[in-house]
Amino acid sequence: MDKKKEVVMSSKAPPQNLPLSQAITIAAQAIGEVMSGRSLTQVLEELEPQERPIVQSITFDTFRRWTRSHALIKEFVPKPPSKPVEHVLAVAITLLLDRTDVAKKGYATHTIVNESVKACGEYDETLYAKGLMNAVLRKVSTALDAQGVKRPDHNSVGESYFPPWWIANLRKNYPKSWQSICLQQSQRPPLTLRVNRRAISLADYAAVLQAAQIEAEVIEQVANVGLDAALLIKEPVPVASIPGFFDGLVSVQDAGAQLAATLLDPTSGERVLDMCAAPGGKAAHMLECADINLVAIDVDRERLKRVSETFGRLKLSAVPGQSVECIAANAASLDWWDKQPFDKILIDAPCSASGIVSRHPDIPFLRRADDIAELQGRQRALLEAGWQALKDGGLLLYITCSIFPEEGKDQAEWFMAGRQNALRLDAPGQILPGHLHDGFYYALFKKNGP
Q: Do the beta carbons of residue 52 and residue 44 sit within 8 Å?
């Protein structure tokens, strides 16, 4: 980031209640960072704790409303604005769209207009556009109010941005459902919890939520696979407001992601490998299920720290009868391996993340069509290394959070075609995004002989 962005995005004494104008400014800059190729997660991590919640909410919603907001920019701005101004406009129009929805939630129109104009005055790059901002937002507001309840909340494929190659892939592979997939991924994702059953039962934690007046319901299964620790929070709340979160009673984890531990079904005494462990949710779930000896590997040393932090919050590292080892390494190289085979291996492989767009709406802006072939190579290298480290009779679970067959079905077929000692067991295969879960691919293999 340049110096001006550094000053705004990392102020020494940020206010406890961030002014809307400053939130708009930071959100617009965050969008600019994504357009330059940076992950929004990385950008948000650089913010102060007081800044992050409102900026994340605004930025996520702006990406989810991208096609609609930019259609309005094109309609009401005769000459294309500079990118910094365009990003402020996109944020402001998103706030107007949220304000004029059926529920009438959000900021008042005059507040959005005034604070957006003020945000334009924060820098030299946008200072010239204060008058433009005021005029355009008032026109957009008038147009939206005129549409009233007839205003479309979403266009035919959802309001999130998807590049042409992405749409082409979905249309080819899901000709009857590609539009509903895009629409689903334009929505805010559900807030789903995984109860740490080493610390508290599902029923007892549900009672804790009820006492805190947080309405929740049990998610019993996803893709016909039973779950025993999943709770859906009906009205999402900040993580800091989830009872017992910092005491290790519960974690935030998508219901689809909770299938991993269920399918691999670790049992006490087993030696288990997680080859791509960060940030640690699936590894922690396995530790909650049984007294296993876990080796957790990730190529990113900084992200691996989050795995240890997750284990510490859940008080899993201190559980008698199990061992936990975290290793920073390229799992596919096997130069970290002590040649002791594993009973079970989890490969949550790096992928396009095309199945979790509702949770990370910046993903379509960051991916390129030629990324898929490179990711396929990394996935196959992990599968080959994992198979080598697996004991005879052991299980290997391959996962991607992708809805592209090139990273799921095609990889499983390639793997089976090259190994006579591989037996494919029942697993859900492709799970498309739904109102209760993200999109995933699951394939489970048993090693029959050397």
A: yes
Sequence-distant (6+) residues with CB within 8 A of 124 are: none
Are 163 and 364 in contact by the 8 Å Cβ rule? The answer is yes
Q: Whole-model pTM? A: 0.92
What are the angstrom distances between the C-alpha of 347 and each of 274, 276, 441? 6, 6, 11
Q: Convert 335-400 into a string of H (helix), E (strand) and C (coil).
A: CCCCCCCEEEEEEECCCCCCCCCCCCCCHHHHCCCCHHHHHHHHHHHHHHHHHHHEEEEEEEEEEE
Compute the distance between CA of residue 127 and CA of residue 84 in angstroms, rounded to an integer: 10
Q: Does residue 54 contact residue 373 with C-beta atoms inside 8 Å? A: no
Three-state SS at 433 = coil
According to DSSP, the residues that pair with 225 across neighbouring strands are 222
Q: pLDDT exceeding 70 applies to what percent of the chain?
A: 93
Tell me the CA distances in angstroms from 222 to 219, 253, 290, 429, one per residue in order. Answer: 8, 13, 22, 12
What is d(CA 11, CA 130) in angstroms, rounded to the nearest whole number?
24
Task: Please tell me what DSSP assigns to residue 407.
Answer: G
The set of residues, in sequence order, having a beta carbon less than 8 Å from that of 309 and lying 6+ positions away, is 280
Residue closest to 208 by CA, chosen among 241, 186, 257: 241
Q: Could you report the per-residue pLDDT of 90-126, keeping only the tens digit for each?
A: 999 999 998 865 445 689 999 999 999 999 998 889 9
Catalytic residue status for 182: no
| Closest C-alpha among 406, 450, 409 to residue 430 | 409
Q: Report the pLDDT value the prediction gives residue 153, as an integer from 0 to 100.
A: 52
pLDDT category of residue 2 using cuts at 50, 70 and 90: very low
The pair of three-digit structure tokens given for residue 112, joined into one six-digit string: 């959005």
Asked whether 397 and 442 are in contact (CB, 8 A), the reply is yes
Phi, psi for 441 (deg, rounded to 5): -125, 135
Of the candidates 120, 276, 351, 401, the residue annotated as catalytic is 401
Kindly state the greatest CA–CA separation across the chain. Answer: 73
Q: Rounded CA gap, 209 and 131, in Å?
A: 48
Non-local CB neighbours of 157 within 8 Å, separated by 6+ positions = 167, 178, 179, 182, 183
Tens of pLDDT, residues 62-82: 999 999 999 999 999 989 999
pLDDT in tens, 266-296: 999 999 999 999 999 999 999 999 999 999 9
